[in-house]
Amino acid sequence: MSRARRVAVPLLVLLSTAAPLAAHTGGSTGHAGVTVEGAAIHYRLTLWPGTLPSAPGTELGRVREGDVEARDRMLGIIRDKVSFVADGVRCAAGQGTLVPAAPGVESVTLTVEFTCEAPIRELVVRDDIFDTFGPDHHTIGRIDAGGTTTSFAFAPDRRELRVRLGAGGYRLADFVALGIEHIVTGWDHLLFLLALLLRGGGILNMVKIVTAFTVAHSVTLSLAALEIVTLPDRLVESVIALSIAAVAAENLMGRPAVSRRWVVSFVFGLVHGFGFSSALRELHLPTQGLVLSLFGFNAGVEIGQAAVVLVAVPALAVLRRAVWQKRLIWGTSAAILIVGLVLFVERALL
Q1: How does DSSP classify residue 118?
Q2: Opening angle at CA 92, ends 116 and 285, nearest 5
Q3: Where does residue 122 rank: exposed (0-12), middle (13-18), buried (19+ CB within 10 A)?
Q4: Using CA atoms, how far apart are residues 220 and 200, in angstroms rounded to an integer?
């Protein structure tokens, strides 16, 4: 097997696995709120049925439609998988309730009250809900207690948080890890970059493309997370899908203007930044913690993106010396175009 062919195979495998994945968010995300008042803990979890795996997603859809038994089963999952230990003693979970959704809202919010033996000084929070919702699920949230806020991000490999109430704090490493996971599993963002880089010219032009994308999405990620400028999620997700299809289509129609591809990367990168921001905006972080959390999340996105680019750029440089590189670029671009169009139809019309 030639060197170029050895490089091409992983790229084709990456593309083939990306096709069936529709969401850019890297699986499902739950948004949790924990309010501590004396010896009482109010736990609130917001989920989106459409983002969850089929079985829990269907169950949550029944909850939204008013199925009482499905509601009780979902509340049972929360009581079983989410636990609080106050000063070494496990707190007792109550029955829980469903928060009525506003018209047109697709999310479902469930609440469970936990009762501890005494006013809490040190709290250990553990979230094992990934055992039910799958390894691609993660939970981001905040703990409000005594006028201070602690933000957290849970994942299958980060299930527990210990916090001393009154100290407050923001776990920067959690948000860096969340940003890395977001971009590495964000197949639509990566497909967009891959489509740009496939016919992006030499190394200098590729660097310009990646830099323009980084600057653009960093700007709009910050503006949207700080709620200075926001756009409807449906519009953002649809345009992201359209950006993938547009760049792939350009690859198929003659030779694109390589010297100006960084402009395309910048313009569409602005939209991708709004997509990145959704995870932080839904958390409703207070002002004093938002900037640090935003910095960590964006740093994680850039780290993950840099890792992918460091693999992709040398691989593409080798492919351009292969005799069959034109057929590979055409076939890959055609596949990306199909994925982009399917995502656009799904997000804009369904």
Answers
A1: S
A2: 70
A3: middle
A4: 24
Q: How far apart are the first and last CA of the chain?
A: 44
For the ranges 38-42, 92-96, 278-282, the lowest mean pLDDT is seen at 278-282
Beta strand pairing status for 122-127 and 108-115? unpaired
H-type alpha helices, the chain: 3-18, 54-64, 68-81, 130-133, 172-184, 187-198, 203-225, 233-252, 261-281, 287-319, 325-349
For residue 57, give both structure tokens.
């997603």
Strand, helix or coil at 297? helix
Q: Given the structure tokens 């409703």, which residue do they identify? A: 284
In three-state secondary structure terms, 157 is coil
Cβ neighbours of 288 (radius 10 Å): 11
Of 148, 158, 256, 152, the C-alpha closest to 209 is 256
The number of residues in the chain equals: 350
User: Residues 31, 282: contact at Cβ < 8 Å?
Assistant: yes
Q: Characterize the bridge pairing of strands 29-37 and 138-145.
A: parallel
Tokens for 111?
């609440």
**Order of all β-strands in the sheet with 82-86:** 89-90, 82-86, 122-127, 160-164
| Look-up of token digits 């460091």 | 310
Give the position of tokens 């990367």: 265
Strand ranges in 70-156 using DSSP code E only, listed in sequence order: 82-86, 89-90, 92-93, 97-99, 108-115, 122-127, 138-145, 148-154
Nearest-angstrom CA–CA distance, 151 and 290: 9
Cα 32-47-130 angle, rounded to 5 deg: 75
pLDDT at 198: 84
How far apart, in whole angstroms, are the C-alpha atoms of residue 232 and residue 145? 32
pLDDT of 337-346, one tens digit each? 999 999 999 8
Note whether 162 and 124 are within 8 A (CB): yes
Question: Quick check: helix, strand or coil at residue 105?
Answer: coil
Element (H, E) at 46: strand 40-47
CB 164 within 8 A of CB 182: no
pTM over 0.70: no
Residue 184 one-letter amino acid: V
For residues 112 and 97, give the distance between their C-alpha atoms in angstroms, rounded to a whole number: 6
